[in-house]
Design brief:
heterodimer, A: 466 residues, mainly alpha, two-stranded antiparallel ribbon, two-stranded antiparallel sheet, 20 helices, 4 strands, B: 510 residues, three-stranded antiparallel β-sheet, globular
Chain lengths: 466, 510
């Protein structure tokens, strides 16, 4: 059993690679690529130097100047716990830093604090990007500071191009004052060198997976950490609910097999299954969260605005009972949970019904009846537990389906869960976030498949994977 | 009685199969009220999809002025696709009737031939209209149509006149009827060419109000994209007759208050009460109200049927085609092809479809064909698994082994011998697939990733809550339409699955 699970876990990786590759290349190969769309949007809002700066920043952060497969490789390296260090993440040790500072401050030179820091960072970037010795680089930089114009050659170390415009500007400044030329040089150089990033194949590492940064600069891992619990909360309420309803209706229709009750239940459930979630959601909000009709429920969100000031449980205050945080949260969850639940149990109920019918025709039921066991006991003691088996298999397919259902529900009720995050990211063409949500969704679905097999084996001793 | 039937009648009654398997299958499915209801609804949707432009159109069927000038704008502005759909509809109808009545193959082909022949002039007409889209047909356009007619004549002669000479009287009579119908149809289509085309500068409604023009409209006199620019711009009117009479006693108290307030302040009345010159109260019916962009809901609903049907069938068609080919190859070759291929299938099975769809639409732009292709390309996994399992079973069977031993080419083994035996469960499941595809399109449209200007149910539903307002008619009608269509396909699928699978035969009987 253990070896089976391990094998499945190992087989998960090629599948995950495939999934992310498909999504990644779909984005990378779209007309103009992921970068073009984003940069155009940026360019429309800003002009000149600002736009150029931000463009360069994004180019480097996502490696947009490289071919798509290199970008994908970088992304995989970034999320993989075993991988290579990136040059931008490396730092000099304290002694090396001190040594560099010493070299930079030697001789006839005055430093502003921030500029000295910049200069040290330049050395650090060059050291790891170009793989050089820190003291050597510090020395060359120190020399360059005496004649910034000749120091422009150092730009080649970080693969930065020196255009004629920059050279002329520096020349102009240097002819007036060496000191401002130095400042200008350090500023420009640090801007060129800082974001330079390269995979250091010589430095393998075991590290925390890093999901990257979203377009707005926030770490994606943080965003996922905020949104995933909300989606899981919705699902954890919905799945047991739909299962219990499905089991009851399934048994009900199996007991009345072929009669009007059976046909009616089947039709109603199929009908519920066919109701589009967005329609149900819009109607619920429109009629039950609307001042014009019935204002029974809140229109959206997971908590009221004043939820932060509430006690957890309902409390008795001077002005009467005050609903606490818990009641408030539950009150907000009613409509979304109904939307997520109503369609789910049609399939489950049908499955339960056929399982019960199947079991009722087994020999052991006949034996039990022959023994004189009451009908009710036959159903609930013998048949019921055996009929639950097929329902386990469906958990695996329900979980990913719920995530999809959650996209629409979260949009309608403005709940900020994973689905909402994914849709928003796709709208803003935010590559790292789309990739992260895809990754999590496919891990969820693959994981639940394994879980299903394990549950199946535990529940049914006849099943073995050896 | 010919000799053939005499031989058959000598076989004892009990040995003769009364029905073929497929006939039995169809009868079984249609015996269920659920499937019958589903089919009826699909027929309604198909009807609206095909005849949409003839039911809801801003162009009048015919209009004339006092000087005797007249034109038929509706026919002039038919799109080639409209014409094609109508003709395809009739061709299918005739073929189906022929099949039910067991007409001979030749007769069916002849019947379809009329339709195809009939398709040519109106298509030319429509294409010429698209090409020389001016007020009057250019000489070139007329020449084109004339050439087309001349070219088509021999086709008609061979397809209709020659078979008629050799037919029995009753058949010749039926065929004659067909020919007359065809001739009528052709004249109908070509008619608007002859009179000079007038009245095009102004919107039709304005001409009727101001120039004393008379027009006969289709049942719903609004096109799907008609934003009624010539009328007072009202946002989202509830169903009813407009413009409303502000002095009518039937208005609700709220409405009366609003009017009183506007009059008190000396402001103009809300658009729904504004009467244009030459217009009378309560003369426009918005059966299902109007949208936020001031378009007629009913018209958009009707024209959206086409997109719903097309998305459902084309997306599912693509999915089934990919699924059958991939699943068939995996199942037939098995071994390492299967092992590798199954990983690919697994990848596509675990991609969260909705995120992929959203990403593709967001990154590549909105396009109905792209949408169909993507929905198809992301939903084939189920079919592939079905076919794979079925082929794994079939390849061991004697008839396949015999086919291989005979040295038949691979495509013959796969598609002529194995596929017909293994494809039935796929087709049954395709019915559910159509439902899912329609839902997916609606979801995408609802998330603002659907079509922009074209009418679609999901896109209409998306407008139901705009600007903090809730318009119940914009939510109810499209939602109901999506629900009924999805429900219909699910009912049909359920009935097909139950009658296909003998174990489930005695199941719920919906």
């Amino acid at each position: 059993m253990l070896s089976y699970v391990l094998r499945r876990l190992v087989l998960m990786f090629p599948t995950l690679i495939g999934v992310t590759m498909v999504v990644f290349f779909v984005m990378a190969l779209s007309p103009g690529g992921f970068g073009a769309a984003m940069l155009n949007e940026m360019g429309a809002q800003m002009q000149g130097e600002d736009a150029r700066r931000i463009r360069q920043e994004f180019m480097r952060r996502y490696g947009l100047d490289q071919p798509a497969w290199v970008q994908y490789g970088r992304w995989v390296n970034q999320i993989s716990p075993i991988g290579f260090h990136m040059s931008a993440d490396m730092t000099l040790s304290d002694e090396e830093r001190e040594r560099v500072q010493e070299i930079l401050t030697s001789g006839d030179i005055t430093w502003r604090e921030s500029n000295l820091k910049n200069a040290i960072n330049i050395v650090q970037s060059i050291v790891f990007y170009a793989g050089k010795d820190p003291e050597n680089i510090a020395g060359r930089l120190r020399q360059a500071l005496d004649d910034p114009l000749s120091g422009l050659e150092l730009f080649a170390l970080v693969d930065a191009k020196v255009d004629e415009d920059l050279r002329q500007r520096l020349e102009g400044i240097q002819s007036k004052s060496l000191r401002s030329a130095r400042d200008f040089f350090v500023e420009r150089f640090s801007y060129e060198a800082m974001g330079r990033n390269r995979v250091l194949f010589s430095k393998p590492a075991i590290k925390w997976p890093d999901l990257g940064k979203s377009l707005n600069g926030r770490p994606v891992g943080e965003m996922i950490r905020e949104t995933l619990p909300i989606t899981l909360l919705l699902n954890l309420i919905t799945i047991p609910l739909s299962y219990s309803i499905a089991i009851l209706t399934g048994i009900y229709s199996a007991r009345h097999r072929g009669k009007l009750q059976d046909i009616a239940t089947g039709t109603v459930l199929l009908g519920l299954w066919s109701i589009p979630v967005m329609w149900a959601g819009v109607m619920f909000i429109g009629f039950f969260a609307n001042v014009e009709y019935f204002y029974w429920f809140p229109t959206g969100g997971l908590n009221s605005l004043e939820a932060g000031r509430m006690t957890f449980l309902p409390t008795l205050t001077d002005s009467g009972w005050e609903s606490g945080w818990l009641i408030d949260r539950l009150w907000h969850l009613v409509l979304p949970v109904i939307c997520l639940t109503y369609g789910q149990f049609a399939v489950l109920s049908k499955l339960m019904r056929s399982a019960v019918l199947d079991n009722l025709s087994q020999d052991y039921v006949r034996t039990a009846r022959a023994k004189g066991v009451a009908d009710r006991d036959v159903l609930w003691r013998h048949v019921f537990r055996n009929s639950l088996l097929p329902l386990i298999t469906v958990v695996a397919s329900i979980l990913p389906a719920m995530l999809v259902g959650a996209v629409v529900v979260e949009k309608i009720f403005s709940i900020q869960g994973m689905g909402w995050l994914g849709v928003e990211a796709a709208f803003q063409k935010d590559r790292e976030v789309v990739m992260a949500t895809t990754l999590f969704a496919s891990i969820l679905s693959l994981g639940s498949q394994i879980l299903r097999d394990v549950c199946y084996a535990i529940a049914d001793p006849r099943v073995s994977y050896e | 009685m010919s000799e053939g039937t005499a031989t058959v009648s000598r076989i004892p009654q009990s040995f003769r199969p009364k029905q073929t398997y497929s006939q039995r299958f169809v009868r079984d499915v249609l015996a269920r009220p659920g499937a019958r209801f589903g089919l009826a609804w699909i027929v309604v949707v198909v009807f609206f999809a095909v005849f949409g432009p003839f039911i809801a159109n801003s162009h009048p069927i015919i209009m004339w002025d006092a000087e005797g000038n007249w034109s038929m704008p509706m026919f002039r502005w038919l799109h080639p696709v409209d014409v094609l759909l109508v003709l395809a509809f009739f061709a299918t109808l005739i073929l189906t009737i022929g099949w039910r009545r067991r007409y001979s193959f030749g007769q069916n082909i002849a019947a379809a031939g009329w339709i195809v022949a009939a398709a040519i002039p109106p298509l030319f007409h429509a294409i010429v209209r698209a090409e020389w889209n001016q007020d009057q047909y250019s000489a070139v356009g007329r020449g084109f149509i004339l050439c087309a007619l001349i070219l088509v004549t021999p086709v008609w002669l061979t397809l209709i006149v020659w078979p008629m000479v050799r037919m029995s009287w009753s058949k010749a009579f039926k065929t004659g009827l067909g020919v007359v119908a065809l001739a009528l149809w052709v004249t109908f289509i070509l008619m608007p060419i002859s009179p000079p085309a007038v009245f095009t500068e102004k919107p039709y409604r304005q001409q009727i109000r101001e120039d004393g023009v008379t027009a006969i409209f289709t049942l719903i006199p609004f096109g799907p994209k008609d934003q009624m620019a010539d009328l007072p711009q009202a946002r989202a009117l509830p169903p009813g007759w407009y413009p409303k009479d502000p002095d009518s006693p039937n208005l609700s108290k709220k409405e009366k208050d609003k009017i009183a307030l506007a009059r008190e302040r000396g402001e103009p009345l809300p658009p729904r009460y504004q009467l244009l010159e030459g217009e009378s109260y309560y003369n426009r019916l918005h059966l299902m109200g109007t949208t936020v962009a001031n378009q007629d809901m009913a018209s958009r609903m009707i024209h959206a049927c086409r997109i719903a049907l097309a998305i459902g069938f084309i997306a599912t068609g693509i999915a089934v085609a990919i699924g059958v080919v991939v699943g068939g190859l995996l199942g037939y070759f098995s071994g390492w092809v299967d092992l590798l291929g199954s990983r690919v299938v697994e990848v596509f099975a675990s991609i969260p479809t909705i995120f992929l769809l959203i990403a593709i639409v967001a990154f590549y732009g909105r396009n109905i064909y792209l949408m169909m292709a993507i929905i198809g390309m992301t939903s084939w996994v189920g079919y592939a698994n079905f076919v794979r399992a079925e082929f794994l079973r079939l390849r061991k069977q004697d008839f396949v082994q015999a086919a291989i031993a005979c040295g038949l080419p691979l495509r013959s083994i796969l598609f002529r011998h194995m596929l017909p035996n293994g494809v039935a469960p796929v087709l049954v499941n395709a019915s559910f697939g159509v439902a899912v595809a329609i839902l997916t399109e609606a979801t995408l449209s609802f998330l603002n990733l659907g079509l922009v200007d074209e009418p679609s149910w999901g896109q209409l539903l998306n407008q139901a809550r705009e600007g903090g307002e809730f318009y119940w008619w914009i939510a109810s009608f499209p939602g109901m339409a999506i629900f009924l269509t999805v429900f219909a396909y699910n009912l049909i699928g359920e009935a097909m699955r139950d009658s296909f699978d003998p174990h489930l035969k005695k199941a719920s009987q919906i």
